[in-house]
Amino acid sequence: MEEVPDAQPPATAHSIKDLQQQLQIPSLDHGLSKAEAAERLKVNGPNAIESHPTPKWLIFLRQFNNLIIYILMIAAILTTIIGDVTDTSVIVLVIIVNAIIGYYQESNASDSLEKIKKMLAPEATVYRDGERLDIPSADLVVGDVVFLEAGDNVPADLRLVDIDNLTIQEAVLTGEANSVIKTTATLPADTPLADQSNMAFASTAVAGGSGIGIVVATGHDTEFGKISQAVSDVRKGRSPMMREIDGIGKGISYAIIAAAVLLFIFGLIIGKYSLPVLALAIVTMVVGSMPEGLPATTSVILAMGVSNMAKKQHVIVKTLPAAETLGSVDVICTDKTGTLTKNEMTITTVVTPKATYEVSGSGYTPKGNFTRGGKPIQPTAHPDLIALLTAGFEANDTELHQEDGRYVINGEPTDGAFLTAYYKVFKKDPDNTERDLMPFDSNNRYMAKLAKCADGKTRLFVKGSPDKLLPLVVTAHPDFDTDYYLKLTSQFSVQGQRVIAVAESTVEPDTTEITPALLEQGLDFLGLTAIIDPPRESVISAIKQMRRAGVKVKMITGDHPETALAIAQKLDMADSPKAMTGAQLAALSDEQRQQAILDTDVFARTTPKDKLTIVTALQDAGNVTAMVGDGVNDAPALKKSDVGVAMGQSGTDVAKDAADMVLTDDRFARMETAIAQGRRIYQNIKKSILFLLPTSFAEGLVIVFTILTQQAMPLRASQLLWINMVSAITIQFAFIFEPAEAGTMDRPPRKKNASMMHKHDVFQIAYVAMMIAGIGLWAFDWLTANHLTDRVTASTMMVNMIVLGKIFYLFNIRTNTLVLSKNFFSNPMAFVIITVMLALQCFLTYVPFMQDIFQTAPMSWREWGLAVAAGSIILIVTEIDKIIRIRWDRLHGHGTFPSVSKTNE
């Protein structure tokens, strides 16, 4: 798959004759010989995009490559050897569930290359040996001469050599909706991709006309192929939180293993316990202390958050970690057309020789009012306005209709704007009869329709570029002030608006054809229209909220910089937004480019490579970056970003496949609620970890303290396993339903490398774990030493004491306010879950067959009182700690204390 050599200017800068000589094409009518084409195909390979997906079985096996999983596997083996079937079953179940969740996330993440391959044209029409043939597009080679016509998908990158009103829809590549008018003229070597009008790119669609082009790149060397290669090459790193949880898991695992080894050696030395008893105690300590619930809890909180987003926010999250990563996003890179704007061209201003009119309403829905000088008018009372609207309606070959309750067009967006403006005044089409239509021409840059009108006259209606149309007006009206209207055109353009001139002329009644001579007779000027792709109303408020939350929004578009900058100003993306083109970025040094990307708000005339460069530079600078897009050209950046976001309705399959999440209703404003939901998920995951660790460690410490003091084991392995199991399916998941902390979107996002655990968090984990274990052991020893109860009942009390300690501690960790506050009932599900857990504890304590399995016994009011008192002590101590921290924060000007909700340290 060969390309025009890098040492040479690009194909856009070659003259047709030079390119023909360089690629050794005998003549354009003759094309390559079949023998030469076969030889080139043999040397350079097919015009195809190959992919090498990872086997599903390997993806599944990779899920077991995790330190916690390794330790749990060893624990499962040991419990099997010892004969503890219950322990083994639960451990194996945890391992399998985690593997399935991980496999689902990874295997579902990206089939982008397969989608790209399906977009390649299956056949191509070429000239070989002087014959016009239809061949498989995979057999195309550099130097082939290809014929294009309306409806074709372009099969390879072509340098155009002959055209007939050729327009190509390049939205999949550039993201811009309007069809591109093609030329054959030689262009400068540094012409940006979006302006390469003498090229036809693979997988774009011919909208109108026909043309002939020379293949200059095939397969992976096409612009489309480069995108597919970029998608393939991109490797997304793990999210900041998942990396940190991995780190926490590893650190805890190493500490538990070290403690287990030392404790085992100590137990052997003192000789108090038999080897089976000691081994079972150590395994019980490891399994009890190991935060095996950590991945499961994290996954369930993420999954529930993802489910809520899909049901309530119209956001489908494909990879669970992306839901949390949203909360730490500090830069959003987004496409313009169809994302920030409606991709529905709308006439906002009409300037006639008599007056200037403003038009309200946006998009293709024909609802809106006309004003003049800010005062409402009745359009039908203004003949100059009606004449312009009618001419704009007639010089048109686009259709406007309703589809699934919304107005859509079949044709060009600019033409759709004229139809919509006309229907804002009239319900019926003009009573005119078409005689001839001259489609939009890339040379003339206007279109015209000849019609027999209801008043009996024959009129020529014309609309198009002012610089092309106004000279025709001067022909009929030599005193026409062209400079005034060209200056007005420039003013509108700087504001990001497209300007279309409208004119007409009355011709001889028997005229049936539009000819150059007919147009050269001159036209009567009707006026100018300023057209804009309006910003989505919801986007403006969403960007305002995101700026308040410390999230920057950067626009990346293939559009003209002035147009893009005008939209950015309307959206209030920054106080003084700055714009830069892709070509300007490429001309900078690496250091300058990095700084420019950080300082710039609008990137215009960009290529897919530019988008990837921008996202990568932002990540390298320490930003957590989201990319919002809908086209194939966005796919590499979508995959590379920390969170790729695709549009569900307008997005291509490739974009949706490369993304981590999809906005099903295409509303960019959903990003605001998604980010808020991501921050809530992070808060709740952090709370669940701060809750899980001390309560898990407490179980391990019970065994540690017992061995160190050479006492008999107060708890059996099955009892500790019950505590873990019951906690895992009940109380731990109370955090799933915890609402967001107040002011969540009024704080900046947490920094990329900010630690989830602060010094105080570690301190609190340690003292809570020691309190639960210490109080439990003290109560057990006091009851048995004083012969107040038997060991089985004391052991049962200790199990309930640890569980109640967890419940009381839950109330402390839930919010950053004191437990007795308005937030006490903010999570009703927490009380439901606590009720279920208490019911299970009664089931364990009083049901005979459970007593037989877990060696428990009924408790008296004294034992229950001790268990409640122990839990109350834990709550009181942690609440006193919270009061101290709240006062400390107020004294030192901090908004909240760090252990729960401070996210930007």
From TrEMBL:
Listed SMART domains: Cation_ATPase_N (SM00831)
GO cellular component: endomembrane system
Entry's Gene Ontology molecular function annotations: ATP binding
Subcellular location: Endomembrane system
Annotated TM spans: 64-82, 88-105, 251-271, 277-303, 689-708, 720-740, 761-780, 792-812, 824-849, 861-880
SUPFAM superfamilies per the UniProt record, alphabetical: Calcium ATPase, transduction domain A (SSF81653), Calcium ATPase, transmembrane domain M (SSF81665), HAD-like (SSF56784), Metal cation-transporting ATPase, ATP-binding domain N (SSF81660)
Domain annotation Cation-transporting P-type ATPase N-terminal: ranges: 10-84
InterPro entries linked to this entry: ATPase_P-typ_cation-transptr_C, ATPase_P-typ_cation-transptr_N, ATPase_P-typ_cyto_dom_N, ATPase_P-typ_P_site, ATPase_P-typ_TM_dom_sf, ATPase_P-typ_transduc_dom_A_sf, ATPase_P-type_domA, Cation_transp_ATPase_P-type
Keywords on record: ATP-binding, Magnesium, Membrane, Nucleotide-binding, Phosphoprotein, Translocase, Transmembrane, Transmembrane helix
Topological category with respect to the lipid bilayer: Multi-pass membrane protein
Similarity section: Belongs to the cation transport ATPase (P-type) (TC 3.A.3) family. Type IIA subfamily.
Protein name: HAD-IC family P-type ATPase
Source organism phylogeny: Bacteria, Bacillati, Bacillota, Bacilli, Lactobacillales
